[in-house]
Design goal:
This protein has about 280 residues and is of the alpha/beta class. The chain contains 10 helices and 8 strands. It has one domain: Rossmann fold (3-Layer(aba) Sandwich). The chain is globular, with a radius of gyration of 18 Å. Keywords: Hydrolase.
Length: about 280
């Protein structure tokens, strides 16, 4: 019995060393803009075990939820923990919902990126290797945000983008109501264009890797293909993986048929584009 207890303690300590968690309010002194709701934006920080003096990359993670919720378990915390196990800081953004204020999630993402780059020394993060990841509607947030500029003195644009079954174009509505939840039921042509990530890509857009299932009926794989094509048209490095099945919303769920393959591909991409570029 004592041996079993000792083993449990050792395993617990080992797992604890793998990543640490810190919760931070994105707007500790109240957000400058309001969505009329009481929810607050927060960051959940998972850091890798520090093995040497080299700084680590980081990824700001935007879970999905159709802009009607934030699905942070398999599309947030589980992914952050996996990233930490690979030597990458995973930082989950629980962004505020728009509630008829389309700028709200993007304000939160911008402030989150400012926090990450401002506190980079505290977390041993390389400010030149800070990416963004997103799932479904969070993928829309990540893709659009990857193409935005800021008036801040600190660069907010991510250095790379990771997308899982993202909503990309608002020119046609998806089943989950992502477009109407962000822009309302009768969005203007200008808003539809401005929030269609494939229309925003330039040669300055960060490199991206995209994962999607071909039988995704909620957000068709055409969305991912459109973003990939826009990236290639602008000579931006990109990788697109379309799995034959899996539908929508698999995230870090281990029962997803291509769970191991997807993470193996992502690990390979991270090693090639992010983890080898030590400062």
């Amino acid at each position: 019995m004592k041996k079993i207890i000792s083993l449990i303690v050792i395993l617990t300590l080992s797992l604890g060393c793998l990543y640490s968690q810190e919760v931070i309010k994105v707007w500790p002194n109240n957000a400058p803009s309001s969505n009329g709701l009481t929810d607050e934006a927060e960051l959940f920080v998972y850091l890798p075990e520090k093995k040497d003096s080299l700084k680590t990359p980081a990824v700001l993670i935007c879970p999905g939820g159709g802009y009607a919720g934030v699905s942070a378990v398999y599309e947030g915390h589980a992914f952050a923990k996996w990233l930490a196990s690979q030597g990458v800081a995973g930082i989950v953004l629980k962004y505020r919902l728009p509630n008829e204020h389309k700028e709200i999630p993007f304000d939160d993402a911008e402030q989150a990126m400012l926090i990450i780059r401002s506190d980079s020394d505290k977390w041993n993060i390389d400010i030149n290797r800070v990416g963004i990841a997103g799932f479904s509607a969070g993928g829309h947030l990540a893709a659009v945000f990857s193409n935005l500029d800021s008036n801040s003195d600190i660069n907010i644009r991510p250095d790379f983008t990771i997308l899982f079954y993202p909503v990309i174009s608002f020119e046609t509505a998806t089943k989950g109501g992502t477009r109407s939840n962000l822009l309302g039921k009768t969005p203007s042509a200008s808003d539809i264009y401005s929030f269609s990530a494939d229309r925003l890509v330039t040669e300055n857009t960060p490199p991206a890797i995209i994962f999607v299932s071909d039988n995704d009926l909620s957000v068709p794989s055409a969305h991912s293909i459109m973003y990939y094509n826009s990236l290639k048209e602008n000579n931006v490095p990109a990788a697109l993986y379309v799995f034959p099945e899996g539908e929508h919303g698999w995230g870090m769920i281990k029962s997803f048929k291509y769970y191991d393959e997807s993470l193996s591909l992502l690990k390979m991409w991270l090693k090639r584009t992010v983890l080898t570029n030590h400062n």
